[in-house]
Amino acid sequence: ELVRPGAMDPLFENPPGILGIPLGVAVVAVAAVLMFAGLAAVHSAGSSARVLRALMLLTIPSLLLIALGPALVLGLQQLG
After folding, report:
1. 5 φ, ψ (degrees, to nearest 5)
2. Can you give the C-alpha Rg of the chain in angstroms?
3. Which residue in 46, 61, 70, 74 has a CA-CA distance of 20 to 30 Å to 13?
4. Measured between alpha carbons, how far is 21 from 9 in angstroms, rounded to an integer?
5. 32-66 burial string, b = 16+ CB within 10 Å, else e?
6. pTM
7. What does the DSSP assignment read for the chain?
8. Is 63:32 a contact under the CB 8 Å cutoff?
9. Per-residue pLDDT for the chain (80 aa), expressed as one digit of tens each?
């Protein structure tokens, strides 16, 4: 197994929520927007420096949001 079963469950639990939407869904949405923006930036990049910049500023943060999203949501649940 690549991921422990239930590891991503906190992303889809409601508390904490934003306007009735689970915070984890908002985190996944932001990560998806960053990922698609990174994909578009890499596709239109004319140089390897622009590709590297797009990866560093868009794609890697989206990966970190997905990987650390459950911990972020659980941490915010503890604060609330």
Report:
1. -55, 135
2. 15
3. 61
4. 14
5. eebbeebeebbeeeeeeeebeebbeebbebbeebb
6. 0.76
7. --S-TTTTGGGGS-SSEETTEEHHHHHHHHHHHHHHHHHHHHHH--SHHHHHHHIIIIIHHHHHHHHHHHHHHHHHHHH-
8. no
9. 566 788 788 777 766 767 778 888 888 899 999 999 988 988 888 888 988 988 899 989 999 998 888 888 888 878 86
Residue with tokens 């659980």: 74
Closest CA to 38 of 12, 69, 65: 65
16 prior amide bond cis, ω within 30 = yes
Place of tokens 């994909």: 39
Which residue is listed with tokens 């941490």?
75
Phi, psi (5° rounding) for residue 57?
-95, -20
